[in-house]
């Protein structure tokens, strides 16, 4: 039996490969899909969908096999540890849900199917690489790898101007952000002479004991850290760097929006936690205060903007910006408790967001997604199960108890209070109360508004789009706007949203265990 | 039997939820079956809860029927249930009122029956859970989710401006609850900082040592959450809307049970957790309580809508209960707890009668009624009893509670009590005047010519409440003997803290302040 954690394993390529095994599996499967696309008979149909699912399952399998090991690889630029195990799980789950959501989405749209799935696998593997990188260059490469896949996916609906517009905005602004990140890395390298996060950490740590440290390097370091933060904040879509988010979330195909809102955001938070805990925790500039302000601005802006939306997809896009603000609170709170809170929130967040996007896809199949929310009335009783599930996800996003959203919020709020951020929590709580309004507004429209007032009701839209409406109990499964894959996604998300809200203990354990492998918190 | 008694609280809490899950699988079209089944199940629930009453030991203030399981180790949160004399009767009230509310809505709820009965049963689970939990996180879970079914009930089956009322209801209470959550988390963290243990166990958190200034801030935060629920004077504006537009069953549950959570919260959480701050802020709260009493009563007098009148009378009555609780003498707190039950019974009954009037004539305006006593003598007689019970006629339940509250508070806060007493006179004015305009005089509205008397089902609905009014009015000792040990213990804690508080004041030279 190989001792995987033996010293210097990172200098041997075959052992290094072990450290990227889950990613490598995905990449292999992505290539398989691409190659099989050459054959006409395989290209059409659902083969690539199933291969993508199998790829993700295999990746899970390797993750499970390796989960008890800590492996360094590629000359110390990659690390696979407990922290990665958690994030890989979350990212793979997000990818799994995305693939499920995509199943029938492109049926009516003229796009290349196998390439789509291979791109999704590529971007998932890039997210995983990103989380496990500990070298600034490696981080940059992974970000680029992830982003390029995401740019293409955003503009995947050929000929739809909104999709192209979203991809264009995302691409141009994303390039800027990457440039910021690279520039920041350069400054940090200039100040410390290292690119490896451990070594940077050790360098600053040693510097901080010296009586007369070099002023120059200090300034460089501060500039570098600020630029690095800008680059990462863009991917996390924090407030002043969020401008691309609504348009590209809105324009992208909805499964891709789900991937961007869950997977990419989770990966960005993952790497941010790694970078932040290792090199920001020194009091070079007061980054805790900067993040404090960013968090407050992000959640306030996200909620205010979401309040003004009448389009469901945009509303959820803005609300996911607001959620990033809450997630950031855990990082600001810091420490074992705060970081595990963040991780738990991220896990809760992917399920409620994926569930909500599943419903959005259902609405799109009914030609309702870009319809004003005001015309949703009658939906609640026409589709009781769908509407109930949707209400549950909305309540979870609003942070009402019994849902995972409450437990996540409770966790990060208590962590922030523990670290003494009373005002931050107070503002966040006011924000939650405020945010509840627009989530509740949708529920109101689905259940409580009478049909007489407006002619353009959902019932009419349904009649126009020739969807047969059965009055039976389990109608949603029979109808053609609901595919079995969508039902699986929604049921999975419902189960986990409830489970994380009522019996969070095993998930908290999982999150807490992975935090212990961060060596500096 | 012993296992049944050991887990009786869990059984009582989750029985309605399981019933609701069962009803999910019944066809939507079978409305009669759904109604009957839900009513029978809620009756069964009430019968189970009577076991609590039978096996309750009345000679101790300790929590009984305690259940404790590990829940979230990371936060030290446990599944910790237990009841004392106060929560015992609130639980009984909840199970009884849910049964009555379901029974009362056979005619009123015509659409979406399935959703209605399921929501009522889910609501019952969460109300019971909130009354029985001794773990703050568990309590908060039950407490806040409770809003959601109620919100649906008002918003879907309500009348008039139902959406406005439902949204106002949920936003007010949600904002209050969230600010309360802030306070609760702070206490939780404070306890951790002092002991190094995360715990949500209420009994342990009672021993948290909170500095006075922080106590005041936290008390205000938690006060907001509970005061909105009660509702105390400046926070009451959601109540008339919610009450007026809700369906009868919703109003009954809202008045009988949901409003009690505010008082219960003060009794169980706010005052024992922050005793010094509550002693310090007592005058402020008493002023608000007295304003609530008088304002609620005066506004009731001028109401044209029957349901709005009863809703504002709730504000007034809840003011009495707050007065009794914050006077913090054994007698007045006894009275408050008893009056919580009484208010649930009398106001619930009043809403039921208003609902019956509305079902018959589809109007709630007092001016549209008149002379109904001749057409419906049984209705008039039973309605009269409910009105007199609310007014506080000796021999009926309302008198006992109000008398205890006023006697208990008089010694401590004479001026406040005198003002509060005037509220009783106003209560008599608006309720009796309303009754006269509705039931006596001549029939002015032609629609009321064919006014029908109560059916057997309707009599069955209100009969338990009428009987309880007499029973509590004539022999309140059955309740008081079980409430009293808990209340005495509560008052002892406060007295002990008063002593400590006076020491602090003396030390800080605040005696003249």
UniProtKB/TrEMBL annotation, chain A:
Signal sequence coordinates: none
Main location (coarse class): membrane
Membrane topology, record value: Multi-pass membrane protein
Annotated localization: Cell membrane; Endomembrane system; Membrane
Spans traversing the lipid bilayer: 20-39, 48-65, 85-102, 114-131, 170-192, 212-234, 266-284, 290-308, 315-337, 343-363, 383-400, 420-440, 482-503
Keyword Transmembrane: yes
Keyword entries, A-Z: Cell membrane, Membrane, NAD, Quinone, Translocase, Transmembrane, Transmembrane helix, Transport, Ubiquinone
InterPro entries: NADH-Q_OxRdtase_suN/2, ND/Mrp_TM
Catalysed conversion reaction: a quinone + NADH + 5 H(+)(in) = a quinol + NAD(+) + 4 H(+)(out)
Keyword Oxidoreductase carried by entry: no
GO molecular function: NADH dehydrogenase (quinone) (non-electrogenic) activity; NADH dehydrogenase (ubiquinone) activity; quinone binding
Stretches assigned to the NADH:quinone oxidoreductase/Mrp antiporter transmembrane domain: 133-434
One GO-annotated biological process of the protein: ATP synthesis coupled electron transport
EC number: 7.1.1.-
Binding partners and assembly: NDH-1 is composed of 14 different subunits. Subunits NuoA, H, J, K, L, M, N constitute the membrane sector of the complex.
Family matches, as HAMAP family: NDH1_NuoN_1
NCBIfam families: NDH_I_N
PANTHER family for this protein: NADH DEHYDROGENASE
Function: NDH-1 shuttles electrons from NADH, via FMN and iron-sulfur (Fe-S) centers, to quinones in the respiratory chain. The immediate electron acceptor for the enzyme in this species is believed to be ubiquinone. Couples the redox reaction to proton translocation (for every two electrons transferred, four hydrogen ions are translocated across the cytoplasmic membrane), and thus conserves the redox energy in a proton gradient.
Similarity section: Belongs to the complex I subunit 2 family.
Protein name: NADH-quinone oxidoreductase subunit N
Species the sequence originates in: Candidatus Acididesulfobacter diazotrophicus
From TrEMBL, chain B:
Location, primary (coarse class): membrane
GO biological process terms on file: ATP synthesis coupled electron transport; electron transport coupled proton transport
TM ranges: 6-25, 37-56, 76-104, 116-134, 140-157, 169-192, 212-232, 252-271, 277-302, 309-331, 337-358, 379-407, 413-435, 456-475
Residues in the signal sequence: none
Keywords: Membrane, Transmembrane, Transmembrane helix
Localisation per UniProt entry: Endomembrane system; Membrane
Pfam families (alphabetical): Proton_antipo_M
GO cellular component, one term: endomembrane system
Domain annotation NADH:quinone oxidoreductase/Mrp antiporter transmembrane: ranges: 133-425
Cross-referenced InterPro entries: NADH_Q_OxRdtase_chainM/4, NADH_UbQ_OxRdtase, ND/Mrp_TM
GO MF terms held by the record: NADH dehydrogenase (ubiquinone) activity; NADH dehydrogenase activity; ubiquinone binding
Membrane topology summary: Multi-pass membrane protein
Stored NCBIfam families: NDH_I_M
Similarity remark: Belongs to the complex I subunit 4 family.
Protein name: NADH-quinone oxidoreductase subunit M
Organism per entry: Candidatus Acididesulfobacter diazotrophicus
